[in-house]
Fold this protein.
Amino acid sequence: MNTIDQLLERYWEAETTVSEEQELRAYFASGQVAGKHEAFGALFGYQTMLRGMSTDVSMPGVVSDDILQGGASIRPMSPLSMIMKVAAIGIILLVAIWGIQRQLDTSSAPMATVLHLDDASDAEEAMQVTRDALAYLTAKLDKNTRSISAHVKTVERADIFNY
Amino acid sequence: MIHKIALLLIFSFASVASSAQVDAIDRFFSSYEEDPSFTVVYVSPKMFQMISKVTGESEIDADIQDVVKDLKGLKILTTELNALQVYKDAKAKIQTSDYEILLTARDEGQNVQFLTKTTGDIVNELLLLVGGDEEFVLMSFVGDLDLDKIARLASKLNLDGAEHLGKLKAD
């Protein structure tokens, strides 16, 4: 036979059946509640207790209004909703990490292009570049040494380049 | 002409064999090489080795080949943006180190400077700096350089390279 204590125990363990919960509610609604159970009265819509209290014990914010009015029942979070919440957070984290990874990958574009040195065609390109560079160099050299020589009249010229 | 050189050929940086020390040129080069308004060309020592193998079979003039085979590295840095400013920056950073000024000239608004780095009688590096309103050019030739040979190339290279040299005028 279930005593109120046993029922309450079961209630905290979320093991009560609907009819057992109704039993609890009936008990608390009956107005004859043992002292030790009075504290739980509000959970089961035990309004009589509250109305009967001489001091004005209003507990705004301590116990939410819908519990005081007996409309809500407090239940421990079911495993399913816990899992869902954890999963949701997990998904958000994974997406965030993935997004950051992508950012990092695309922003670190290779700074240097390394060409395969065994490709003969690259050597030709490099040769062409070198020739162009030498052409530019010698043109500048040529032009400027000549213009300098042209201006030097009596001073012995320093033959830097013999050509 | 510089626009023709404007291929972004950046070969492996790590393989600058013996000249591994970071000198003023390298520092200057590194400070601009990632700037998109600059054109950067770097031909590594390894690449020059390959070039000598390849060009031996081609029809390139023997004198040109003779010079190229002695080259170990080539760096080119050029821009058309803030050319004079970059030129001044280059001069300030490079002159203070172990480069000797070979020649300084000013020609139609363009400043030109040739510098060399020598070990004894051997020229290890020839540096060309050009700075004007329109362009800034830094060219560094590293190797066993024979300046006479290089100077003599002028006429040979200009024959087919004339279209590259916008400012060259026949004297």
